[in-house]
Design brief:
single chain, about 200 residues, alpha/beta, Rossmann fold, 5 helices, about 25% helix, globular, binds zinc ion
């Protein structure tokens, strides 16, 4: 079946699908690469597709909490092979300073994402990527706080799970803050889930 295409006021934001967050990477998320075909299938449905990436300096306060990962310019920071990057209209670099974590795409230092979206009359975001319990969570909460409508692509996210259940708790926190989650009766992807082509 063909999937519904979204209007010009709706964009897809792909969060941090980078080598270091995929199996074999410095901060690997279980199943981090399994979401790539799902994301690739969603991309053609949007007129505007954006991506964020962790883009850290070699030394960062961030690395007191995490093993070093996604250092700017390294292989680990590259988007995972197989991800369809050809339609990324804007790539948001975050965590670029040595004093910030840069979990949220709205903390990008090369672009003010909120202003960029408003300037294009984009009001709705579909958000997918890595990891559910950190960068996806913070990006979703920031988007809601700034007044954007948010739908989380449930099959297009994966969690770090430092503590078991973190991914589920993050989903619940996002829903409690006002995000929709695909597969809910309120979202079109209830249809997609029944008839995935
Ligand atoms: Zn990071």
């Amino acid at each position: 079946m063909s999937h519904e295409r979204f209007g010009l006021d709706t964009a897809l934001l792909v969060v941090d699908v980078q080598n270091d967050f995929c199996p074999g990477g410095a901060l690997a998320v279980a199943g981090g690469d399994a979401i790539i075909p799902v994301i690739n299938a969603w991309i053609p449905r949007f007129a505007t597709v954006l991506a964020s990436r962790d883009w850290h300096p070699p030394d960062s306060v961030h690395f007191t909490s995490w093993p070093p990962h996604c250092v700017a310019g390294t292989v680990g920071a590259q988007f995972r092979a197989g991800l369809d990057t050809g339609r990324f209209l804007l790539i948001l670099d975050k965590g670029t300073g040595d004093v910030d974590d840069g979990y949220s795409a709205f903390e990008a230092t090369n672009e003010n994402l909120g202003n960029w979206l408003r300037g294009r009359d984009i009001e709705q975001l579909y958000i997918c990527g890595l990891a559910t319990d950190y960068c996806v969570l913070r990006t979703v909460l920031d988007a809601l706080r700034l007044g954007f409508g948010v739908t989380v692509v449930r099959d297009g996210i994966a969690a770090v799970e430092v503590n078991p259940g973190d991914g589920q708790r993050a989903l619940e926190a996002m829903a409690a803050a006002g995000a929709l989650v695909t597969g809910d009766s309120r979202t079109c992807c209830n249809i997609c889930n029944r008839g995935q082509s």
